[in-house]
Amino acid sequence: MTDARTDDRGAAADVNPERQPEPEQVHGAPVTWSRGQRVVHPTGATYLDVIRGLIDDGFHVCVDLTAVDYLTAAGRALPDGVAPERFEVVVNLLSMQRRERVRVRVQVPEDDASLPSLFDLFPGTEAPEREVFDMFGISFEGHPDLTRILMPEDWIGHPLRKDYDIGRIPVQFKGAPEAR
């Protein structure tokens, strides 16, 4: 059963109200939209291929690479077919020709917290990948120098993980009586 309606341009279009539109995809990865920006959700296995495809599409600038720990937000909204994991690596790319940004969100499981490095595609990701490694413990395969960047080399743990113990430093005030 079809229903004659008009599309955005005012042209008549046949629409089947029972047929669901195909979900939007970019280079085989599902797409959602957030605040007018396209968000692509590749898997860890397709991460590099999707990034290479976006480079071919004109996204030649990697603006940022960071991570999020969703330890306490396991039920967040994701597109169909994307399983939520504890960590998410977020990459923001920019196309100067298209005047467009695209966000790439990759789910990273806690028990295998690793992704391929973007260093060969975007050398500027060297420091952000080290920061994600240092703060979240997510490793990047193929990174040329995956060492701590903010914390001392002998630091134990990853401070931006939600389950990282906050700890405390005792404060001693000048002239205060001895602790009881």
- Roughly what fraction of the amino acids lie in strands? 25-35%
Radius of gyration: 22 Å
Mean pLDDT: 88
Low-confidence runs: 1-13
Q: Structural class of the helix and strand makeup?
A: mainly beta
Morphology: globular
| Number of DSSP strand runs | 10
In sequence order, what are the helices and strands, one letter per element? EEEEEHEEEEHE
State the share of residues found in helices, binned by percent: 10-25%
Largest sheet: 6 strands, mixed
Strand order of the largest sheet: 3-4-5-8-7-6
Number of distinct helices: 2
First CA to last CA: what distance? Answer: 83 Å
In words, what does this structure look like?
- The chain has 180 residues and is mainly beta.
- It contains two helices and ten strands; from the N terminus they run βββββαββββαβ.
- It has helices at 47-56, 126-136; strands spanning 3-6, 12-15, 25-26, 29-34, 37-40, 61-69, 87-95, 100-108, 114-116, 139-141.
- A six-stranded mixed β-sheet has the order 3-4-5-8-7-6. Strands 1-2 form a two-stranded antiparallel ribbon.
- Helix 2 (126-136) links the parallel strand 9 (114-116) and strand 10 (139-141).
- The radius of gyration is 22 Å and the shape is globular.
- The model is unreliable at 1-13 (pLDDT under 50).
